[in-house]
Structures
1.
Amino acid sequence: MKKLFVIPVAVLAFTFGNQAVAAQDLAVNSTTEVSATQEKYTDVAVETLPQPVIDAVAKDFAGATISKASAKQDASAFKLELAKEDGESMEVYVDAEGNWISE
């Protein structure tokens, strides 16, 4: 009678053990790598900025001057470093039409 009880227990243990190993393998194989690409900004001369960008700075940051400018490769957006009157500097992002954007 004892042998009859041991055989089903062994079969069940073997079955559940294989399922646990299979589940582990499945979890390891299901990982995916995600990489985000960030567009780089390259330095440009302040004098080459589009007029709407210069106007937006003059309107919204009166008294500030553009100390450094960078542009995306397609010149659709710009990263500006502004020097404020109180000596502080700040970094802002603007599109070619003069609309402020967040990066």
2.
Amino acid sequence: MLKNSINSKMRIKSRGGVDKMSDKRKDDESKKREPVVKEQTENYAYDGDDLDFFGMEEERYEIIEGVRYDMQAAPTIHHQQISGALHIMLHQTCHPNGTILYSPVDVYLDEDNQFQPDLVYILHENAAIIKEKRIEGVPDLAVEILSPSTSHNDKVRKKRQFERFGLKEYWIVDPVHLTLDQFILNGDGKLNLVETYVAPNRVTSPLFSCIDIDMKRVFAGLH
């Protein structure tokens, strides 16, 4: 009687074991039939030898008379307000006659002189100097907005080279004194100061009849 009882329990365990093994085989076969997708984990870690994520923007610099001058990664808010106002007003009146571009745009004069003026105006008749990545040649009008780090270059070195390459008109905008100096190329190949504008005057040009700049709007954001 005891033997039969033991055998009965063994058969129950055996049947249970067979059932469990059968279920496991079914699960294994089911898994084999399912497509396996391998998840990829992205690694965004970097060390000092890697490219700094926050330094991925392109360097900004100018080459003036063979010397490289690094520029600020981002101009000041006041600088951008002045640049934006000038761009809007130039575009409103001069766009039918030419192309107005604003910084950052490279103006390539030669290997020793590669500038980034704040604004340039190029007549349609001279549009051939506009290439895919830069201006290759002198624009018709160049505008510089002074900053402490660029003031001397804008007033002296770049002006000298713009003269040499025949820039017709050059503006220097001073955010401190709220003025716009207008230089026109004369017959001797010199950029002569012909007018200093302040608000509420309007800037006009003897060379480009479309120009009509309201000085009150130029410095409106600085008050």
